[in-house]
């Protein structure tokens, strides 16, 4: 009897163990399936990614768009927007900016653009606003000091510099004030030029409204609140150099700080700054028809050659590299092959076309950066989209007053009537274009946006469209279909 009971107990125990094992295996199989089904169902309504951008997934994971929570919840963001609009309801100038900044919070705007897209004109609109402290391409200093560093490698340094400038800490400019060249990293004291840096050493200072107006320039011909272009020669003659600490003090008085630059390639590099609640950063990204950009770049080819090389080196840095070559196998510099794209591939550039080779290759890199920015913006969460807006240069010159109101509303700024008149006059001038490509002047911008049709050959148009076609499609720029003129 005892043997039968023991055998029966062992059989029941074995059956129970077998059932438990099968149940455990079933759970292990069903749980991952349920989780995967829920994840797929959650992504069902999302827009599929374009397949011709293989680095998009890597970029999304690198910048971590969806892995962190926004710095402010939706209700706090809406309250901040209402406070900003309430603070911007008047037309008070810099004299009352301290109270305005305390009431609505200091706001920072970065104008994200590239060379020859009309960014100088866009920045000038903010430079003219009486409630704005504006800086014109301050990161030029970093690029000059770290030449020939490629654009991608310098993005981290540019972002850190931008953070300091937005906080009105201009001591960062002293790090890059010395002329480019070999420097001893163990030197005990900074160069004299860096230690004595003044407002006259800042790039673009001759047309800066704050530097060329009282109180920094008591002898200025017009006050800060008066809207109108600054005469650079008159500013240089009448405005003495001032210490950077005085400029920092003026920066802290303004409720809005705007910085325009063209040397930051990736929108994703700004994500750490966009996530800082105390910084309150917003980004305006400016685009322009790549064919018009290429035409304008060719007109200023010598001035843009140095920086185009830095941009072009970013592509060679990003391309996969094979095993290292023997020094004897390296091609000589004069036999550098053209990259595929704007100027074709497999041919060594002729001396007369060398500048166009670098400009064309750089534009191809820029268009790829545009494509990544556009796709990243589409996948961005709602809190980030509220801090980011896009603007086409063609829309700005066709509807200047409407676009100006939209931009200032995005920045939380009032719209002075004199500024509306200014933007209209600047885009409805009699001149077709300027012989000085970096000079801001009134011109008939509606006609200038089509100048590429008369100056680019059919081959050049086809090459630009082949390199930038995907970005042009997302920006609603129609292809020419092979007709350049």
TrEMBL record:
Membrane topology: Single-pass type II membrane protein
Listed SUPFAM superfamilies: P-loop containing nucleoside triphosphate hydrolases (SSF52540)
One GO CC annotation: Golgi membrane
BP term (GO), one: sulfur compound metabolic process
Protein name: Sulfotransferase
Domain Sulfotransferase residues, every copy: 279-474
Main localisation: Golgi
Biased amino acid composition, Acidic residues: 72-85
Keywords for this protein: Carbohydrate metabolism, Glycoprotein, Golgi apparatus, Membrane, Signal-anchor, Transferase, Transmembrane, Transmembrane helix
Species per Swiss-Prot/TrEMBL record: Strix occidentalis caurina
């Amino acid at each position: 009897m005892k043997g039968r009971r023991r055998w029966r107990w062992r059989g029941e125990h074995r059956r129970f163990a077998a059932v438990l094992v099968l149940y455990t295996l079933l759970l292990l199989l069903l749980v991952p399936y349920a989780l995967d089904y829920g994840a797929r169902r959650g992504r069902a309504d999302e827009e599929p990614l374009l397949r011709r951008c293989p680095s998009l997934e890597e970029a999304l994971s690198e910048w971590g768009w969806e892995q962190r929570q926004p710095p402010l919840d939706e209700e706090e963001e809406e309250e901040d927007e209402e406070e900003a609009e309430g603070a911007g309801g008047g037309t008070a100038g810099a004299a009352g900016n301290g109270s305005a900044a305390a009431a609505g919070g200091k706001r920072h705007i970065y104008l994200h653009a590239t060379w020859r897209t009309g960014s100088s004109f866009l920045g000038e609109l903010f430079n003219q606003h009486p409630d704005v402290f504006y800086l014109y391409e301050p990161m030029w200093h970093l690029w000059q000091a770290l030449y020939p560093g490629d654009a991608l490698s310098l993005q981290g340094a540019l972002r850190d510099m931008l953070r300091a400038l937005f906080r009105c800490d201009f001591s960062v400019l002293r790090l890059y004030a010395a002329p480019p060249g070999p420097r001893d990293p163990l030197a005990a004291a900074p160069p004299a030029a860096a230690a004595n840096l003044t407002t006259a050493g800042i790039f673009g200072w001759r047309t800066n409204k704050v530097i060329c107006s009282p109180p920094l320039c008591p002898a200025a011909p017009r006050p800060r609140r008066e809207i109108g272009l600054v005469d650079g020669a008159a500013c240089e003659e009448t405005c003495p150099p001032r210490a950077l600490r005085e400029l920092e003090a003026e920066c802290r008085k303004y409720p809005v700080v705007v910085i325009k630059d063209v040397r930051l390639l990736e929108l994703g590099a700004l994500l750490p700054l966009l996530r800082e609640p105390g910084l309150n950063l917003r980004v305006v990204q400016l685009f322009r028809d790549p064919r018009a950009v290429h035409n304008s770049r060719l007109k200023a080819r010598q001035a843009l050659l140095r920086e185009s090389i830095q941009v072009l080196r970013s592509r060679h840095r990003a391309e996969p590299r094979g095993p290292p070559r023997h020094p004897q196998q390296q091609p000589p510099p004069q036999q550098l092959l053209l990259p595929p794209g704007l100027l074709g591939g497999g041919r060594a550039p002729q001396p007369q076309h060398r500048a166009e080779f670098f400009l064309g290759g750089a534009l191809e890199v820029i268009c790829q950066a545009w494509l990544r920015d556009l796709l990243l913006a589409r996948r961005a969460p709602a809190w980030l989209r509220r801090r980011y807006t896009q603007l086409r240069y063609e829309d700005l010159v066709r509807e200047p007053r409407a676009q100006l109101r939209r931009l200032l509303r995005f920045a939380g700024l009032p719209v002075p009537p004199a500024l509306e008149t200014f933007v209209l006059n600047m885009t409805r001038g009699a001149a077709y274009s300027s012989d000085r490509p970096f000079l801001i002047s009134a011109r008939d911008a509606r006609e200038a946006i089509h100048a590429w049709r008369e100056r680019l050959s059919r081959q050049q148009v086809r090459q630009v469209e082949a390199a930038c076609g995907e970005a042009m499609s997302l920006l609603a720029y129609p292809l020419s279909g092979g007709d350049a003129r």
